[in-house]
Every structure is written in structure tokens, then in C-alpha cells.
């Protein structure tokens, strides 16, 4: 009886935005009389930090300091539509909506500034809250003064609206093919899990996760790391601990409280090593692609491959609980060979479990 | 200073960690009523009769609703995509999972609401439930829905299909066929904040709905359709969520609270108990995935056959969407020129499954990646080299005929190898995502890039 170490790798890809598209986000931006900026969008922040990311995007798109910008996503009266916070779409699609709105507002700032400064708006630029003449940086006017002029001199409101949506991609139901790409972008990741398996108890401990994510461009690297590390813990729960139906497919023995459901806790946290790669997307805001959902996809297979590396058995039902690991160790099941076929897991296959007629129905096309 | 790229602190982080964030449950409304729901104790049963009269007369009870009180009771989350509605807000004639809501009560306090539930009598005729989706087509198996065991609306088909290339030929030419079965299980979303809604009927006839939804406009659409109201009668207040992970894409508490608030003409709050959150809220779906890969002795994957069964639970919700996404990504981060995929959404008598982080793809990534490791073992190959060899490259074509423009399977693997000290052989260390040529353009991939409909993916 001993503890064995093993290492497994998994490489994954994941789409940004709703599958088949057709999921709009909208936003609008207005300037207060002192140039401070309000952003309205219906994008819900579920803890991933989308409000912060959207604020960063607006600040740069408009050319004002970050702390001038306030985002309001609090209600459907003042905020326009966002399809929702799901499908890893917040930074890309919601981010593009606020970017487009800020760019329209920027044009309005330049227009009013041009009138005030008697310079063609095309010869003006905005940075750090100041409008200045290209090539003559001492000729400048603060965005606050521009907003005041709009309000008190011209009787106008500086505002901008934006909407982002990729058209719906029809799928051919016979072949599954599409004629329009069915996503906004694709992100990629590799995860290496190093585990220790106790062959007496079946317990698996994840010692280290090394994770590389291509996120296009990290609008906020700290928040990207938050997604990677939070996702890693969810992936660890999925791979090793959590089961809504501990004896699936039986519905019995479901956990009905925290004490009876094993969600990962801080004691399960392995050493986590993150690498962010930046392969910019063509049309995401500042090159960004999604990170949100994919962050819990690579750990379960990496962990299960590491278990095989450690003790030589494949656990292909998730989570790899001590019971499943021990049963696999006891069975030491070799794949069945039939000609050039190498058949793993035959005993849990549809063909074995269902009746002949029932299995045939799933094969009928 | 540029804000984009900066490590700025989270906008709401300080409020969260100092307890100053206002969640739905922190909102106060004068004259508040509390909600409890009567849920099915059976996995599958016919409802013969419901009698709410004693509950209605119970002191402190201000409103009781059943399906008869819902202007449009049956709803479908994917109606916009042409999928017929199939899920009642409150059970009508049948219950298909344990925990399904049948009636709801609004009362002066939670204890009174709980007492009122005891006074509702429901007569059931229990039926045999179905739990093992592999048995769904077996003769004599219980059927969850009258139209049959599986979702029938993938165009004219009852399964999501992907067909590309010459699969028969690939399996004939293969040196080895590796087959495996993968069963990633259901998990809970486990938000710290359970499903909670507060609905205030305003003097002007509007409803203000304080919601923990992940999608305010989506949930507003759900409520508007059940209540048959235009959007200007509703104001959703939200944007702050105490943990969602996909579970709060379901509009679980808002609609019933709104109906009770309208009936009682008082503010109504419904805060699910932890037990309800665990047992009656949706889960991530369990999946059953069978893969067979046709491979050459030197590690090229020539073809793949896939059979996926997606355990939807009792109602469709987003299942067909999730399965289509699963189908689109079933080759993983690799290029497989010949594929045959059949995926079924199968109903069972468990709580409906819904979106969860990685929806549709988490399951197939699990299956594909474990299968890749197995293929490497069967061939006696390095698992890194097997993956890099078959990795997506610029110009490669996916099973659904999208031509990849800038995949990064190769660089993420190279960076991971370097980080953990895996010594790749020189040809793998120097590999790039550039279009295939030479040894990395084997005969079976020649022409693969031509099989698109002109789609360009990023």
C-alpha cells in the first residue's frame, strides 16, 4: 500500500459567445456636465468582474481616466438589453457594446471641442481626459470643459449608443454544418495536473495545476487570473468531489445541505501556476477573447489522466471518488480486443446496458 | 494611463468583502409577504385533484396560486429558436420530477406560509419513473413525455447530427480503433445566495422585480410571457448576484413571486431554502458519451464516431442548445477530417438540467481528452506528441465546416510543456500553428481545408 504520483495533460478549446450567435448586447454612455461618464448596460456582474472590465474599456475608448467612469447595470428601465451573463460573452460582446457606445460619445466630444477650439475635429485627439490638437499638444481643452460647453453653451447632451451582435448561424440539420462561423471567437488552454493517489484509500490529491490560457488580450490580468483559479477549483470539484447524484442514475442519497455535498474548499486548493498567452482576436474589444466558462473544463480529464499515470487505471465516470478509484484498482480492467478494435468500458456502454431493441433505436437514423 | 491591460481592483470587491453589497435578500419593502411552494414528493405521478381551499382560509395567508392562476403556464426557454414550449410554471395534471412546484402561498410570515402548504391536499396517482437514460427506448420503459423518450426537434431529426468526410473509409484504413465510454456526472451550482426574488406591485400598476438572475432581460422576457404583460409593466432590478455559475439563467423565483404579488397586491419575497436550492433547483446535466476513433499506428486520427446521450431531466430548458454546442466541439482542439456524430437529448424523471459553466462542452472536453490519453497509451505514444500532431492548425476545418483562422492548440501546449519541464522533441518544440505542410500534412488531411462553406473562424 502506497501513495503514487502521476501527471496528466489536457488541451481544450472553447467558444466565445452563444453557440450560433444571435445574442445582442446594447449600451449607452452619457457625460455629466463636468465630463464624468455614466455607462448603462444590462450586463449582470456575477462576480467575474464584468463591470470593472467594461469600465476599463469605456475609459480607454473615450480617452478619460478610469475613475471618471461609472457603470450602472442595476435595472432594465435605464439599461438597454444584454442577452445575459452566460456563454462566456460578457467581455467580448458586452465589451464591444460599451466600446461602440463610448466611441460614438467620443465623436460627440470631438465635435463640440472642435467648435470650442475652432479646429477641425479630425485634427483633434483625446487622452487622459484632455482634447488636444494633433501635432500641437499645447492647444488643449479638458473633456470636462467640453462637457460644460455642450451643456451650458450649446444646450446639447453628449451621449453615445452601441450594440454588438453577430447574426444567427443556421445549422444544416443533416450534416451539422454552418455557413457563418457560429461563435465570436475561440479560446484555447492546456492544463497539467500532478496528483497523488493513495492505493489503499482511493483518495486522490491534486498537488499542482499548471494552466496556460490564450485569452486574446487580458483587459485585466488580475481578473483573468481570478477566472483561471476559480475555474480550477470548480474543475477540481467536478473531477474529484462533487456529485448531485452520488449513485447516478439512482436519484437517491442526494445531498441537501453543505455538510452532505462535497464542494471544494480551501483545503483542496493545490499549487496553481497560471500562464496567460495573448493571441489577439480580430474583432473583440482590444483583442480580447473569452476566459469565463472554459476555466473549469480542462482539470477533470487532466486529473483522470494523471490518476492513470499514477496507478494505471482509467476512471471515466466523474467524479473520480475514492470508491471509484478503489473499484478500478480492484478490477484492473484491461480493454477487450476484437481484431483491430481496442474496447474500453464495454460494461457501461449502451449496447451492454440497454435491451437490443432499445440500443437499436439510438442507432437508427 | 491606459486602463485596458491594467491590474485594476474589482469595482465591487471592497463592498463584497466588507459585507456592504446589497443583494436581493437585503432589500426591504414595507408590508412584505413571504412565499413557500408546494413541491411534488413523487418523481412521476398524475395529479388527480388539488384542493387549496383550506390553505386560502388559513389566518395570515394572503394568496394561493396554482396553474389555473397563470395567464400562460407553459413556457419554453428556446421558443425563439422554434422549440415548442414544454415546461409548466406550476404543475398541470402531471408531475415529472420530485420537487416540481405545484402550488405557491404568500403569507404574513414564513411559518404561516409553511403551515398553509400542509393544508393543501393533492391526490396523486404514482407512476414508474425513468432514471437510466440508456434504457429510454427499451420496450416497456416509462416515458417522461407523450411525444417519446427524446427531444424530437433537431430540424426533421430526433438527434443532433454531424456528418463530415468518409467515416467508413477512415475506419477501414485505420490500424487501430480505440473505443471508450465517458460519463461525467451532474453537479450542483452551489451558489452562496439561493434563488431569491422580491416583487413590489407599484401604485402605477407596474411590478418592480428585485432579481438575482444572470440575465435581466432574458428573465424579464420569461416573466412577461407567463404573465402576458408588455415589458413596460415590468422593471427588473438586479445586476448583483451571489453566485450564479449558470444556475441563475433559470428564472426560478421571479414569476411565481410576481403572480402572488399581483394577487395579494402586496410586496412578496421568495427566498429558497438551502434544501430547495440543493434538491429542487436545476443541476449540470449528466452525460453519456461513447467515442470510437480510427487511428494510424503513428498517431493520426483519421476519423471519429460519437454517440452522446444528454440526460436533460424532466424538461427541455436549454438542453438542445447545449447538445448542439457539444456537437460543434466534439473534435476538441484537434483536426479530425472524418466524423459521424449522433447526439440525443433524453428525458428522465429528475430535476431539469440547465446551463452551467462550460455548458455542453465540459462533458465533451472530458471525454475527448481522456480518450486522447488512452489512444496514446494504446499506441505507446507520448500523450503530448499525439495531441500536438493532431492539433488544430491555421486553415484546418472543424467537423461543422468552419475553417480555423488562428487556433492556438500548439502554443498553449508548448508553453505548458515548458512550464512543467516536459522535454518535447525538436520537431514538436519548433512546431507552430502555421498551415500544415510536409510531414504534418499527411494524405488524409490534404484537401480537408477545401471542405468549407467559405466560413472563416477566429
Account of the 3D structure:
- The complex is a heterodimer of chains A (365) and B (458).
- Chain A is an alpha+beta fold and 365 residues long.
- Chain A has three domains: 3-16 and 183-329, Aldehyde oxidase/xanthine dehydrogenase, molybdopterin binding domain (Aldehyde Oxidoreductase, domain 4), CATH 3.30.365.10; 25-164, 2-Layer Sandwich (Aldehyde Oxidoreductase, domain 4), CATH 3.30.365.10; 334-363, no CATH class.
- Chain A has helices at 50-62, 90-117, 143-153, 221-241, 299-311, 322-331, 350-353, 356-363, and strands spanning 3-16, 25-31, 37-41, 69-72, 124-127, 130-133, 136-142, 159-164, 185-198, 204-214, 271-277, 336-338, 341-343.
- In chain A, the strands form four sheets. Chain A has a four-stranded mixed beta sheet with strand order 1-9-10-11. In chain A, strands 4-3-2-8 form a four-stranded mixed beta sheet.
- In chain A, helix 1 packs parallel to helix 2 (90-117) and helix 4 (221-241) packs across helix 5 (299-311).
- The radius of gyration of chain A is 27 Å and the shape is elongated.
- Chain B is α+β, with helices and mostly antiparallel strands and 458 residues long.
- In chain B, the strands form five sheets. Chain B has a seven-stranded mixed beta sheet with strand order 3-7-1-14-11-12-13. Chain B has a five-stranded mixed beta sheet with strand order 9-17-16-15-10.
- Mean pLDDT of chain B is 95; it is low at 449-458.
- Strand 13 of chain A pairs parallel with strand 10 of chain B, so a sheet runs across the interface.
Amino acid at each position: 500500500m502506497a501513495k503514487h504520483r502521476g501527471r496528466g495533460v489536457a488541451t481544450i478549446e472553447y467558444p466565445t459567445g452563444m453557440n450560433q450567435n444571435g445574442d445582442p448586447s446594447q449600451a449607452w454612455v452619457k457625460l455629466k456636465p463636468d465630463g464624468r461618464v455614466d455607462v448603462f448596460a444590462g450586463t449582470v456582474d456575477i462576480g467575474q468582474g464584468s463591470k470593472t472590465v467594461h469600465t476599463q474599456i469605456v475609459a480607454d475608448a473615450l480617452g478619460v481616466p478610469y475613475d471618471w467612469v461609472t457603470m450602472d447595470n442595476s435595472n432594465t428601465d435605464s439599461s438597454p438589453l444584454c442577452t445575459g451573463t452566460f456563454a462566456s460573452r460578457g467581455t467580448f460582446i458586452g465589451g464591444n457594446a460599451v466600446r461602440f457606445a463610448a466611441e460614438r460619445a467620443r465623436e460627440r466630444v470631438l465635435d463640440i471641442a472642435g467648435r470650442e477650439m475652432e479646429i477641425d475635429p479630425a485634427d483633434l485627439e483625446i487622452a487622459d481626459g484632455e482634447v488636444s490638437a494633433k501635432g500641437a499638444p499645447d492647444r488643449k481643452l479638458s473633456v470636462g470643459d467640453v462637457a460644460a460647453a455642450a451643456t451650458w453653451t450649446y444646450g446639447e447632451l453628449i451621449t453615445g449608443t452601441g450594440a454588438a451582435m453577430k447574426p444567427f448561424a443556421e445549422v444544416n440539420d443533416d450534416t451539422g454544418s454552418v455557413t457563418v462561423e457560429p461563435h465570436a471567437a475561440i479560446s484555447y488552454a492546456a492544463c497539467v495536473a500532478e496528483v497523488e493517489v493513495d492505493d489503499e484509500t482511493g483518495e486522490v490529491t491534486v498537488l499542482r495545476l499548471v494552466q496556460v490560457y490564450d485569452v486574446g488580450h487580458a483587459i485585466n490580468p488580475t481578473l483573468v487570473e481570478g477566472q483561471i483559479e476559480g475555474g480550477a477549483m470548480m474543475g477540481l470539484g467536478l473531477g474529484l468531489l462533487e456529485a448531485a447524484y452520488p449513485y447516478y442514475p439512482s436519484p437517491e442519497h442526494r445531498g441537501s445541505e453543505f455538510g452532505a455535498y462535497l464542494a471544494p474548499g480551501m483545503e483542496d486548493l493545490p499549487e496553481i501556476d497560471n500562464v496567460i498567452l495573448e493571441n489577439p482576436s480580430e474583432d473583440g474589444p482590444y483583442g480580447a477573447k473569452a476566459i469565463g466558462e472554459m476555466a473549469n473544463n480542462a482539470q477533470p480529464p487532466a486529473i483522470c489522466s494523471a490518476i492513470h499515470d499514477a496507478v494505471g487505471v482509467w476512471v471515466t465516470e466523474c467524479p473520480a471518488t475514492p470508491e471509484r478509484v478503489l473499484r478500478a484498482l480492484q478490477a484492473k480492467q484491461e480493454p477487450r480486443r476484437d481484431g483491430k478494435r481496442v474496447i474500453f468500458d464495454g460494461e457501461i456502454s449502451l449496447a451492454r446496458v440497454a435491451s437490443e431493441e432499445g440500443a437499436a433505436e439510438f442507432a437508427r437514423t | 494611463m491606459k486602463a485596458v491591460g491594467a491590474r485594476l481592483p474589482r469595482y465591487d470587491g471592497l463592498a463584497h468583502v466588507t459585507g456592504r453589497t446589497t443583494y436581493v435578500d437585503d432589500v426591504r419593502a414595507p408590508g412584505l409577504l413571504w412565499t413557500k411552494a408546494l413541491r411534488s414528493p413523487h418523481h412521476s405521478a398524475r395529479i388527480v385533484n388539488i384542493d387549496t381551499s383550506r390553505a386560502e382560509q388559513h389566518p395570515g395567508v394572503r394568496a394561493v396560486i396554482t396553474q389555473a392562476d397563470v395567464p400562460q403556464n407553459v413556457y419554453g426557454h428556446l421558443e425563439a429558436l422554434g422549440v415548442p414550449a414544454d415546461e409548466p410554471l406550476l404543475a398541470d395534471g402531471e408531475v415529472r420530477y420530485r420537487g416540481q412546484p405545484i402550488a405557491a402561498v404568500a403569507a404574513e410570515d414564513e411559518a404561516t406560509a409553511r403551515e398553509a402548504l400542509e393544508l393543501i391536499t393533492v391526490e396523486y396517482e404514482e407512476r414508474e419513473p425513468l432514471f437510466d437514460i440508456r434504457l429510454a427506448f427499451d420496450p416497456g420503459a416509462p416515458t417522461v413525455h407523450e411525444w417519446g423518450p427524446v427531444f424530437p426537434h433537431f430540424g426533421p431529426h430526433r438527434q443532433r447530427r454531424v456528418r463530415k468526410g468518409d467515416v467508413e473509409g477512415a475506419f477501414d484504413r485505420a490500424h487501430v480503433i480505440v473505443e471508450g465510454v465517458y460519463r461525467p456526472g451532474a453537479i450542483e451550482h452551489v451558489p452562496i445566495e439561493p434563488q431569491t426574488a422580491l416583487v413590489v406591485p407599484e401604485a402605477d400598476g407596474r411590478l418592480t422585480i428585485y432579481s438575482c438572475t444572470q440575465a435581466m432581460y432574458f428573465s424579464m422576457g420569461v416573466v412577461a410571457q407567463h404573465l402576458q404583460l408588455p415589458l413596460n409593466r415590468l422593471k427588473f432590478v438586479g445586476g448583483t448576484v451571489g453566485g450564479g455559475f449558470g444556475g441563475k439563467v433559470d428564472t426560478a423565483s421571479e414569476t411565481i413571486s410576481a403572480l402572488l404579488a399581483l394577487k395579494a397586491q402586496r410586496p412578496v419575497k421568495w427566498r429558497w431554502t438551502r434544501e430547495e436550492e440543493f434538491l429542487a433547483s436545476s443541476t449540470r446535466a449528466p452525460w453519456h458519451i461513447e467515442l470510437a476513433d480510427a487511428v494510424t499506428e503513428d498517431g493520426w486520427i483519421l476519423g471519429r464516431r460519437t454517440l452522446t446521450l444528454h440526460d436533460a431531466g424532466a424538461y427541455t430548458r436549454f438542453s438542445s442548445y447545449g447538445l448542439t454546442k457539444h456537437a460543434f466541439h466534439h473534435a476538441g482542439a484537434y483536426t479530425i477530417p472524418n466524423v459521424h456524430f449522433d447526439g440525443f437529448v433524453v428525458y428522465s424523471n429528475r430535476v431539469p438540467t440547465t446551463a452551467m459553466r462550460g455548458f455542453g462542452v465540459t462533458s465533451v472536453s472530458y471525454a475527448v481528452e481522456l480518450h486522447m490519453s488512452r489512444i496514446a497509451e494504446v499506441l505507446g505514444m507520448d500523450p503530448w506528441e499525439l495531441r500536438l500532431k493532431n492539433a488544430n492548425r491555421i486553415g484546418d476545418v472543424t467537423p461543422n465546416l468552419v475553417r480555423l483562422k488562428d487556433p492556438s492548440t500548439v502554443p498553449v501546449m508548448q508553453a505548458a510543456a515548458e512550464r512543467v519541464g516536459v522535454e518535447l522533441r525538436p520537431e514538436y518544440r519548433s512546431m507552430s500553428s502555421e498551415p500544415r505542410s510536409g510531414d504534418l500534412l499527411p494524405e488524409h488531411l490534404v484537401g480537408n481545408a477545401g471542405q468549407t462553406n467559405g466560413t472563416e473562424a477566429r
